[in-house]
Write a structure and sequence with these properties.
about 20% strand; three-stranded antiparallel β-sheet; Rossmann fold; Arc Repressor Mutant, subunit A; alpha/beta; six-stranded mixed β-sheet
Length: about 350
């Protein structure tokens, strides 16, 4: 699936304060979007097919250049399009939000930005804004049609992640390389927000940032209208994928409680030499192999829990059982449906 990203970071402004982190923000975000995380011993794999800056950032970005960058990002030539902005944001007397260009405080209204995204032919459309009042993007409109109700404004496939609520400013802490929000975004893309399979998704990124930032004055916002899992980046899986694929060997159904006994603890087939070291090659008992290669790895990642004991070894020692957790049942279903191969 072809993917394109446009990243914009503006430090220099006319009539507004100079910012210090925004160019650093977009340079690091660009690097992370270009390549997936490396697995041990493997080469880098390409992530987004195309990642662009609008112009040379040292000289700022004009209103016209920002408009061209936005239109180019969502021109419909790619299946997934992502627009990232770090810079000044503004708000008018009516509560309407704007992203600012070097030469214009109210360069692009967030309503116009969302209209561009909503009308894009791209399947997946992601907007990430790190600026003051960014939560105004995608807020409900009160459209009077006889009922006076508010209606959602996100088209299918649209996801918006913002650094703050529509009435809040966003911060770049002095003497830091990245802004507060984008620093957390970078950590999330580097793997902090990855699921067990190594997928970094918009919802995972938001959950990761919200945990760190949401307790303070700056409140990140997440809005989405999609039924698809959209991956922003891939990093090495947190679990041995072979253990995931072999779940069915231990659990024929999601609710099954697998009985354990001491045969899962003892390897009676090993031959020992005089120094009490195992002589290879040697056969490994099937139950011991399951404990080592499947159950222990599933347990350490929260997919399996012992029943009535603390730890799988005690459960095996005292003849108890183990079962899948709710998360384990989710991954079991993915394996059974051949969504994990």
């Amino acid at each position: 699936m072809a993917k394109k990203a446009m990243v914009v970071g503006i430090n220099k402004y006319q009539g507004l304060s100079t910012l210090s982190c925004c160019v650093n923000d977009d340079q690091r975000v660009k690097q992370l979007l270009e390549w997936n995380g490396e697995e041990d011993g493997s080469q880098k794999t390409r992530n987004f097919d195309e990642v662009r800056y609008p112009v040379m950032q040292d000289y700022g970005v004009s209103r016209g250049e920002l408009e061209v960058a936005l239109a180019s990002c969502f021109d419909g030539r790619f299946d997934t399009a992502l627009f990232y902005f770090s810079g000044h944001g503004a708000i008018d007397e009516h509560g309407g939000g704007y992203i600012s260009a070097t030469d214009h405080q109210q360069a692009i209204s967030m309503r116009d930005l969302l209209d561009t995204v909503n009308h894009s032919a791209c399947i997946n459309k992601i907007v990430i804004l790190d600026c003051c009042y960014s939560g105004a993007c995608g807020q409900s409109d009160a459209r009077v049609n006889g009922s006076g109700q508010n209606f959602a404004t996100l088209a299918d496939g649209v996801t918006i992640l913002t650094s703050s609520h529509k009435g809040q400013v966003s911060y770049e802490t002095q003497n830091k390389r990245y802004s507060d929000f984008t620093g957390l975004l970078i950590e999330a893309l580097e793997g902090g927000a990855a699921n067990l399979l190594g997928d970094v998704t918009p919802s995972g990124v938001y959950a990761n940032i919200d945990t760190a930032l949401g307790l303070f004055g700056q409140r990140p916002m997440f809005k989405t209208n999609t039924s698809r899992l959209t991956r922003i980046r891939k990093v090495p899986p947190l679990i041995d994928m072979n253990a995931i694929r072999r779940m069915g060997e231990c659990f024929p159904s999601m609710e099954y409680e697998m009985p354990l006994d001491t045969t899962y603890l003892r390897d009676n087939s090993v031959d020992w030499n005089e120094a009490r070291l195992p002589i290879e090659p040697y056969a490994v008992d099937a139950n011991v192999e399951k404990m080592r290669q499947i159950l222990r790895k599933l347990e350490s990642n929260g997919l399996v829990v012992p029943c009535g004991e603390h730890g799988l070894y005690r459960a095996a020692k005292y003849g108890k059982s183990c079962k899948l957790t709710k998360l384990g049942q989710y991954y079991w279903r993915l394996v059974m449906e051949e969504k994990i191969l």
